[in-house]
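Before the break, one more example. Copy the sequence into your notebook; we will annotate it together after we see the structure.
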Amino acid sequence: MDSPRLSRRLLRSALSALTLALVTTALVGGGAHERSPALSDTAASATMTFDEEFDGSAGSAVNGSRWQIETGDNVDNHERQYYTAGNSNAALDGQGHLVITARKENPNNYQCWYGTCQYTSARL
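Here is what the structure looks like once it is written out:
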């Protein structure tokens, strides 16, 4: 039967060997594999497909030619808000950001799947 000291020594030796193996693998690079291209190489060859700067004035609505605003209660996934049009729930902040705001309100007596809606929000 092994003594507790011998068991601790074996455990310590095994952990040391494992640590050394992991560090060596990390320093060497994990073995032979191809180097992936640098990020700058990839970015230089990429083609932008969509760009939106949200550069309108504070409080203005999103660009309707680029964004489709959905309205309604989205009964399919049982969300609890009514999506509105306009800039009450989705507006630019004047600093290049789109702000989507959920509000606990129902100014037009919107009806949701569960009854009278309690919240409004935006979905683009």
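Residues 1-29 form one domain. The first strand starts at residue 81 and ends at 83. Try to locate both features in your own notes.
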